[in-house]
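W.,

You were right to be curious about this one. When I first looked at the sequence I had no strong expectations either way, so I just let the prediction run and decided to look at it fresh. Below is the sequence, 322 residues in total, followed by the output.
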Amino acid sequence: MKRAITLALIGIPFLFGLAGCGNAPDDSSSSPSAPHVHKWGPWERDEDAHWRECLICGKSEMDAHEGGICEVCSDFKVLALGFLEGGDGAHCDFANECNEYFPALGKKEGFMYDFSTDFEMLNTKTLEGYDAVMFLNNYPYSQQQRQAFKEYMDNGGGFIGFHVSAFTTESDSWSWYFEEFLGSGNFRTNTWNPTPELLKVESSTHPAVANVPSTFMSSPNEWYGWTNDLRNNKDIEILLSLDDSTFPVGDRTGEIWYNESGKDYYPVAWANRNYNMIYINMGHNLMPYNDFEKTSKTFSEIHENQFILDGLRYVAMAKQGD
């Protein structure tokens, strides 16, 4: 086994950050025996350890750990914020689903995920330790929390917001967030019941849509419409919208969207070109409110999941300058 062979070769653990082979540094060298500074390859991981090799000389360094991912070998670190009880039952359920899905995904894909219900985590000291923040089903209300979040984003922080994290009917209460950052303004309309719909990729260049087909099915969702027309905002790059062929959207009288004229337009995911951010409208499963028993999961569609993963990786790695 590769890891066992590596252990046998090194004899004792290497110190992380080793700066070469004991020779004069030469970053341009491609010969294993010539003086050089190690050019490390990507981390490899299993449940017990992580390791990497120098791409020039093959020297290895590794360390044991538990859980398949740790501070040293993680590609990035995410702070998720939201509530788990009170409020809308489906919104609570989405946060609980995230807290199962993202830790497991992080072990597989190489990132760390922390969750808190405490928006006091939005402070300069805490945010310094994270490459991305996710608002699962809420957003900050105190001026101090909002200011810390804005400074984090102004300084290159990463952000993913889901569903109700953009909901407001008073956008002037935090105009930077709703009008400038998200660009959506106020909530205008929604569909009901939550339904799966065909989504259309609108961007040809954004990394979040690089690995999904031009159209794909979503998981069931309650879809939102906004007062601002995002097409007319030069700072907004629309990533996904409802495909024309998927209308009508919703299945309860009075809360169904029609698009017979082809003139209406419903973006469901977008980025702001001035920030490392993506807003994703998904995050409300199909949950009848008479018994609060969910009948769907948000993370149930492979292409939608790929879009979310690629978007999260993009905003987090962009924060690092990668």
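Here's what jumped out at me. The two ends are 32 Å apart (CA to CA). And, maybe more interesting for your project: Residues 89-109 form the longest helix (21 residues).

Coffee later to discuss?

I.
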